[in-house]
Amino acid sequence: MESLPIDMNNPAVREYLALTRLQVLTPLSLVINIASTLICGIIVKPSIGGVSRLRPTAISPNAPSIGVYIIILYIMQIGYCVLLVLARKQETKKALTKAVGHSLVFGNFIMAIWAITWIMQWFLVSTILQGLLLLFLLYSNIALLIYHPPVSSRPFDTALIHAPLRFFFILPFMLLFPLNLFITLGFVHDPTLPGSDPSYSAWHVWPVFGVVLGTNLLGLIVVVLRRDIVWTVAATWICISIWSLRPKPAPVYFTVIACTALHPLALFSAEVYYRLRKRRAIVLEGNDDHPGLYRHQTEQERRRRENERGPREVNDETIWS
To answer: What is the pTM of this model?
Structure first.
């Protein structure tokens, strides 16, 4: 068979082929993810929400609330797939192929398999899958922020690449991975059953409290430093989904309620501080001798005086100094 009449080592050809593969694999992985989630969440009994109710933990969420979160995530990914086809700018193509690449494809396949392992109650396998998902999405988000940061000149990149990847990452980071891990470790208890300990001691409250507090504090740091509205919305949503399902131990319950208010407040405070600082930075002092204002005029005056004075005499002692 004769070789193809194209240079496979050409960077432009390789980029085109990489983008073409993503245009096929990303929608396919999304369809498989949606199909698996729908079947495991609606048709199969016990469903995804049913298993969550069978194994209550201190951070078990309200299933309908998380279901709406996932539906919005699917809609955002559909926008990402549209951008894959319509992308024309070179920076956008590089962000799609090099920063995100196959991480989102693997993420969708992992979520599809995770839904099956969850309803089968293979919690150790589901925890490992959520850990892999977290690593893939963490890599893509870091690569996007470092090499392809969001800029105002490319709003579609921000809305259709950065936002879906960030929204997807926060789900396993703040909820799914800790939830699977706690169930695997046996931090499960139903205080509504007769004879149950009302102190929630079987839930191992303080380790769970530490994880919830730590993830939310890290999220608050990101919100303050980057003024990240996507992280604010996603983290607030997950906090609401956790405290809206009761009963909950008091340390966890009050922590997620407090973080529900703190995330929007942190975003608002960071935005106000940034705008005030920016406004203060562009105000110049009313000093007539300010060198930045009159440097050009001073330079012209100096040259005029030198021309009037004529050429300077060369000093043998200072010419080589």
So the answer is: 0.83
Q: How many CB atoms lie within 10 A of CB 186?
A: 13
Q: Using an 8 Å Cβ cutoff, are 171 and 133 in contact?
A: no
Q: Measured on CA atoms in the order 178, 182, 184, 185, is the torsion positive or negative?
A: positive
Q: Which residues of 40-74 are buried (b: 16+ CB within 10 A; e: fewer)?
A: bbeebeebbbebbeebbbbbbbbbeebbebbeebe
Per the rule left: phi > 0, alpha: psi between -120 and 50, beta: everything else, 19 is alpha
Closest CA to 157 of 210, 111, 91: 91
Distant-in-sequence, close-in-space partners of 234: CB < 8 Å, separation ≥ 6: 69, 166, 167, 170, 171, 174
> What is d(CA 275, CA 257) in angstroms, rounded to the nearest whole number?
28
What is the mean pLDDT of the segment spanning 212-216? 96
Q: How far apart are CA 100 and CA 105, in angstroms?
A: 9
220 pLDDT above the threshold of 70: yes
The string of pLDDT tens digits covering residues 121-179 is 999 999 999 999 999 999 999 999 999 999 888 899 999 999 999 999 999 999 999 99
**CA 180, CA 52: separation in Å to the nearest integer?**
10
Residue 115: closest CA among 20, 50, 160: 50
